[in-house]
Amino acid sequence: MAAPLLLPLILLLSSTPPLQAQQNITQGSSLTPQGPTTSWHSPSGDFAFGFQPIDGNTSVYLLAIWFNKIGNLTVTWYAKTSDQDPVPVQVSSGSRLQLNSNGALSLQDSTGTEVWSPQVVGASYAAMLDSGNFVLAAADGSTRWESFKYPTDTILPTQVLTPGMSLRSRIIPTDYSNGRFLLDLQSTGVSLYTVAVPSGYKYDPYWSMDVNTTDLVFNATGAIYIGNNTEITSWVISSIADYYLRATLDPDGVFRQYMYPKKDNNQSNQAWSAVDFKPPNICGAQLTKIGSGICGFNSYCLWNGANNQSTCKCPDQYSFIDGERKYKGCKPDFQPQSCDLDEAAIMTQFMLMPTSLVDWPLSDYEQYTSITKDQCQKLCLTDCFCAVAVFHSEDNTCWKKKMPLSNGNMADNVQRTVYIKVRKNNGTQSEITDPNKWKKDKKNWIIGSSLFLGSSVLVNILLISIILLGSYCTITIKQVPAMQSSNNIGLPLKAFTYTELEKATGGFQKVIGTGASGIVYKGQLQDDLSTHIAVKKIDKLAHETEKEFTSEVQTIGRTHHKNLVRLLGFCNEGKERLLVYEFMTNGSLNRFLFGDAKLQWSIRAQLVLGVARGLVYLHEECSTQIIHCDIKSQNILLDDNFTAKISDFGLAKLLRTNQTQTNTGIRGTRGYVAPEWFKNIGITAKVDVYSFGVILLELVCCRRNVELEAAEEDQKILTDWANDCYRYGRIDFLVKGDEEAISDLKNVERFVAVALWCLQEDPTMRPTMLKVTQMLGEAAVVPSPPDPTSFVSTLA
Predict the structure, then answer these.
(1) Cross-referenced Pfam families, in alphabetical order (predicted)?
(2) Which of 284-293, 388-397, 417-426 has the lowest mean pLDDT?
(3) Every domain of the chain and the residues it spans
């Protein structure tokens, strides 16, 4: 917006509507947290000033201002003790706020002691304005005090910040104590800082705009400016009357501008939408030598571009010191290495775990050059001070880092490999389950089959039986009527040379995934578009398919669907067998599904439909039916639009039973394996239906199917727990804490019912994937599913 157009807006902001037109609060008026009057409203009722319970706790209250007409009563201002010691004022139910006869506003606790006051007298009246500003006014209408001059973490349209004013984030959304982030306005510009808690010491800024400024203005069109015309947020709304607006320095350090539609604002499924934010990616914004960075020590920051949210995560075998206050950082779940151990004991007790795309760029205390990766790892492993080794293959440089680790960040542009020192066999060791107990307890069967008793004589016999019977997944010879038009069969596959792919991947350096079929590397083609690719090295092939590799890959290449990862080409050179796929920007589904920040329910529901449609194509719309056999969250990839795409389809015939995650004739992954794998019956597409049922429950509940560390015994196996919740009519237990899903329980229950149909023991009772998509999309009725818990008795 040009500067000449801005001037009338600033003049408009400076002309406050006559206070006499507002609903004035006279001297002697008072509020109590649980009395007849708990708040004073603005004339329109859009805002309220008064007592707000903290996180639903009716015994502790804030003196606050909030949006009063929306389901989420969002607080925009709250009283603090003083500028020198800015602690949020919290009072009990016996407190009282009164505009006294001398024109002073005073908050007293249950003992009658004053705990907060604006420290002004002579106010003839007070008013809660429709702008969200609470004012104390003299008899002539002049303002003696106003909340807009003492902001907390939020500013509103028509609010102006002047140099020396600031915003301070909350520590967490439910704790209004001063947080770790500060927006500070000075005459030289505006900056965002991380700060020490509780001292408030400012570390280095992680975002700033340097400009000779006078004010920061949130104008009436929804734009936020600094100085005369320098935009902080450029989003402009055409009809401000239709939306509530605010800009908040959130607890994660991002300054976000939000909107909320006024229409149907009492609907529980409405939510604030972020329309602009600074900085663009907070995880990569800061590098400070003092302090932990954006996340706590020993953790790393992950930015989700799809919903513009950051998440703090712990490395493997580390956990948060405080799961609610994650800014406190992560601690190892094992006893750190003692400096008294000899090298033999160290090699026995500790190992280095490789981690891709993560880096702690500081905390180095020693560096080596012209060194091999193995030497780098050994130097860290034998050094009791070393917690992490970092190796850069391009220049053979090695860094050793010690705790605490700071400025952790996860990003696609991290080119170095991090090796984290952990204790061997530190994780919870599951007891080997007696096979006879499978008949008695489905839970033990799932855990036992997940961990798989490779050394068991019974299982070895079972393995031989399965191999002899040929019960493995493959691209079947069943002909299915083609339902795709000829122009949808996909582009011809390119035959790459090994040299081309070696160059594209930089010598196969950047590992982005590992699995049953091999290792996946990130690369970039030297074409006009500099196309990013994912290259899968097939470790081993079934002997009978080595000579047929090209023809089998061409069969896979003829598949073409929006919910399948596209195969671009292959390499069949000497003993090298490689597949070249399109690169999926957001990686695998499990990266977003099992973390601390849940994907929105609406996104998860779309992902469910996408996976289902991809399987329908493989099972029923290909000219040659394809059974995947290893459907799991790791094999569901997400593009930059968060479209679900199935990967690794069609590899079953190439791999046969020689290359699987369980090293047995049973193809699949723990927790997703259908029960017919353990019977002498043929394998059909219904094994994929079963695995899809598991993924469907994981998407609903945002947790893994097998969680042996779950506090409650009946919640360790998700399929059992979901079945119990469905039978007892308590679907809400499965989505506890997920407000969006709870507001849509009807669809949640439908999804769970479809999942239970998919999990039936008898494959013939499971629906086809086409029927599944119809039930999910409400094109077909979902009858109440039978209880799928009776199959265990037939496993022997």
Answers:
(1) B_lectin, Pkinase
(2) 284-293
(3) 3-187+216-278, 280-427, 468-476+593-794, 486-582
The C-alpha atoms of residue 459 and residue 449 are separated, in whole angstroms, by 10
Regarding predicted confidence, which is higher, 223 or 636?
636
Q: Which of 14-18, 91-95, 165-169, 274-278 has the lowest mean pLDDT?
A: 14-18
Q: Give residue 553's pLDDT.
A: 84
- Is the CB of residue 189 less than 8 Å from the CB of residue 208? yes
Q: How do 567-573 and 494-495 pair as beta strands?
A: parallel
Confirm or deny that 378 is annotated as ligand binding: no
Residues 6+ apart with CB under 8 A from 107: 63, 79, 89, 91, 95, 96, 97, 114, 115, 116, 117
Q: Which two tokens stand for residue 478?
A: 């069943």
Instruction: Write out pLDDT tens, residues 18-40.
Output: 343 447 999 999 999 987 889 99
pTM, two decimals, is: 0.54
Give the per-residue pLDDT at 83.
Answer: 60
Tokens representing 569?
Answer: 């080409």
The fourth-level CATH superfamily of domain 468-476+593-794 is: Transferase(Phosphotransferase) domain 1 (1.10.510.10)
Query: Which of 2.40.10.330, 2.90.10.10, 1.20.1510.10, 1.10.3720.10 is the CATH number of 3-187+216-278?
Result: 2.90.10.10
Q: Measuring CA to CA, which residue among 123, 164, 131, 172 is closest to residue 148?
A: 131
Distances in Å between the Cα of 231 and the Cα atoms of 3, 217, 381 are 11, 10, 50
User: If you count them, how many residues does the chain have?
Assistant: 796
d(CA 631, CA 615): 9
CATH of range 486-582; options 3.90.420.10, 3.40.50.300, 3.30.200.20, 3.30.160.70: 3.30.200.20
Mean pLDDT of 442-466: 44
Cβ pair 533, 580 in contact under 8 A: yes
Work out the average pLDDT over 648-657. Answer: 64
What b-and-e string marks burial along 718-727, b requiring 16 or more CB atoms within 10 Å of the CB? bbbbbbbbbe
Q: What is the H or E stretch that residue 451 is in?
A: helix 442-451
Indicate which residue of 383, 630, 738, 744 is catalytic: 630
The tokens describing 627, both together, are 């059974």
Q: How far apart are CA 481 and CA 459, in angstroms?
A: 39
Q: Do 3-187+216-278 and 468-476+593-794 have matching folds?
A: no
**Secondary structure string (H, E, C) spanning 700-737:** HHCCCCECCCCCCHHHCEHHHHHHHHHHCCCHHHHHCC
Spatial distance between the Cα atoms of 668 and 516, rounded to a whole number of angstroms: 9
* SS3 per-residue string spanning 648-671: CCCHHHHHCCCCCCCCCCCCCCCC
Question: Has 333 been annotated as catalytic?
Answer: no
Q: Average per-residue pLDDT in the chain? A: 81
pLDDT at residue 114 greater than cutoff 60: yes
Sequence-ordered strand ranges (E) for 329-387: 330-332, 350-355, 358-359, 364-368
